[in-house]
Amino acid sequence: MLALHLITFLLLSPALSATITTTSSGHAIPFPHYEHLNIKQSIASTTLRPLSKTNNTAVKLHLLHRDKLPFHRHKDHRRRFLARMQRDSLRVAAVLRRTSAAVYEAADFGAEVVSGMEQGSGEYFVRIGVGSPARSQYMVIDSGSDIVWVQCQPCSQCYHQSDPVFDPTDSASFSGVSCSSTVCDRVENSGCHAGRCKYEVSYGDGSYTKGTLALETLTVGHTTVQNVAIGCGHMNRGMFVGAAGLLGLGGGSMSLVGQLGGQTGQAFSYCLVSRGTGSYGSLEFGRSVLPVGAAWVPLLQNLRAPSFYYIGLSGLGVGGTRVPVSEDAFKLSESGDGGVVMDTGTAVTRLPSAAYAAFRDAFLEETANLPRAGGVSIFDTCYDLNGFVTVRVPTVSFFLSGGPILTLPARNFLIPVDERGTFCFAFAPSPSDLSIIGNIQQEGIQISFNGANGYVGFGPNVC
């Protein structure tokens, strides 16, 4: 295990060439068809069909949900939920735009991760140090973005953040990038002003960041990472309120994962903290591995949207029975349409309309004994569980390509939307053929990406 002392990674070196490995399919293991949802504290374990096992360890840092942060937030649960769903719809629209457009924007260590439920589209936060000496900043983690940026002084247009805005004049390691640099050439929508490389990123929902590109030192835990190409944003707007900026973890060369390249095996993992618990999630970089019981499936590549992590999904299950949905509903076409994206920035899983309808109807049939409630926001399947202590609900499963079956804890698919006991089925139809697995469904599951080998792994509930 890598010791957390003054360890320095020199970035912007070529990444290792990709090597694809294979795994055996094995046999399915039984999983429960029903489980009990505890209304006051709905905690359940994650059931997996394992494909591979390992017991190595890695250094972890905390991931945090935004409702744990010292930001101003709505006190009323329903208002907070409705605002979150509105932002989530904007996030989905942005993802759909980026996956359908022809032009795109742009050693082991880890960090604690916090959840961002209340003032963004379900964003999760990590606290890292920026500059020398290091200034601690809350950063949104985004598996669908390919740039690292922070708000910078002088700030002509900045949203509110909880930490002081980063001042590059106070950092001994800050170095502007020239227009002639190869680093500048790697940034989409780059420009030049007074010999300095300019960047601009628009997220499709009205959010954007504009400023200069620089090389800077980041501190993650007790580990320093030198020469990270970051955006120093002087004009910023959007759904990042509270955070200092964004830590891009996407598949492109300018994300932190891409810049670390061969030094970490293009590998990282995260475990998103479950809502309403006092625990932390985790974020790890490097050849971090999963605990015993992990299941690995291939990552799929979409050249039209290289930032996003696509996986194969063959079907859906309710109560131990496979829903009659064609596998073609989830396929990634040769032209880059459809497919299934895993996204930390989207809260609620979206499915193609026909697949969602069959999935929902199967769940309704198995929960016919529960009192219904009217739809709320993007949810059309809700229940009035006021007065209940526990309820018996069918399991919900993802049938992953290659054989693994991921069965979700009840709290990952039946969620409270107000303080009156209304719970909703936490899935929604997608306005396109694209499916997005959101962070509500990912909570409590250790998820590891191995970009060099082209696999993603799902571990048991270890957050």
Automatic annotation (TrEMBL):
CDD domains: cnd41_like. Keywords: Aspartyl protease, DNA-binding, Hydrolase, Protease, Signal. This is Protein ASPARTIC PROTEASE IN GUARD CELL 2. It comes from Salvia divinorum. Residues 124-459 form the Peptidase A1 domain. The keyword DNA-binding applies. Belongs to the peptidase A1 family. GO terms for molecular function: aspartic-type endopeptidase activity; DNA binding. Residues 1-17 form the signal peptide. One of its GO terms (biological process) is proteolysis. The lineage of its organism: Eukaryota, Viridiplantae, Streptophyta, Embryophyta, Tracheophyta. The active site is at D142, D343. Pfam families: TAXi_C, TAXi_N.
